[in-house]
Amino acid sequence: MMRSRPVVGVVVAAVMVSMVVSPVAIEASAASQADSGAAALQAGDIFFCEWSHYDTDPGWDHVALYIGNGSIVEATPAGRGVVRIVNVSYLAPYAEAIRYGRVVSANASQREAAVAFALSQLGKPYQYLNFLRPMINRSKDASADATAWYCTELVWAAYHHQGIDLDLRGAPRGPVMPSEICWDDDVEMYEGHLLN
Q: Would residue 142 count as lying in a domain?
């Protein structure tokens, strides 16, 4: 009897394909933004998304950095790399919940510098090795010269450059997960979900 063996490449490819989302612009009225707490957003805030179809970590599955004026910067797969999304509400069809957190240990100039760092990374590819990092024990790379990013690593690096380590574990190796940023003492989560 022949035993079938799982093919890691197929599993990784299936996971990456399941993460692919297409931007969809959804107009949000000023009233609905004020009701949801979006009016309180500041540049440098962190969006936490819970996808209905993908789970890397219990709770939050994706993070993005709010850059102001209704825009976010995020690292996404499928060849889009690090992109600027003009309307944050594009996330609505894909997420079960979106909340935001603020890096309370950062002052205004550190938040602005974190945004500038993330914007300087536009166009770099997605870091697919995130899924394999725990197995290969790769060190985290916060360098502006990093060749690729995954979502949480980009946000972590943006603040790491400001002297703020958002990795709850503070480990020099392995991935930074969304929940580690969420639970870090430097981040204050806001109770109101941006989506209901």
A: yes
* CA atoms of 131 and 14, how far apart (whole Å): 12
CA distance 122 to 124: 6
Residue 179 CB neighbour total at 10 angstroms: 18
User: For 18-43, what is the mean pLDDT?
Assistant: 44
pLDDT in tens, 103-130: 999 999 999 999 999 999 998 888 876 5
CATH number of the domain residue 162 falls in? 3.90.1720.10
pLDDT digits (tens, 9 = 90+) for 56-80: 555 788 899 999 988 899 988 755 6
Q: Are 162 and 110 in contact (CB under 8 A)?
A: yes
Domain interval for residue 151: 31-189
Residue 3 covered by a domain: no
| Pairing, β 81-85 against β 62-68 | unpaired
Q: How many domains does the chain have?
A: 1
pLDDT band at 175 (very low <50, low <70, confident <90, very high): confident
Mapping DSSP onto H, E and C, the string for 95-138 reads EEEEEEEEECCCCHHHHHHHHHHHHHCCCCCECHHHHCHHHHCC
Asked whether residue 42 is domain-assigned, the answer is yes
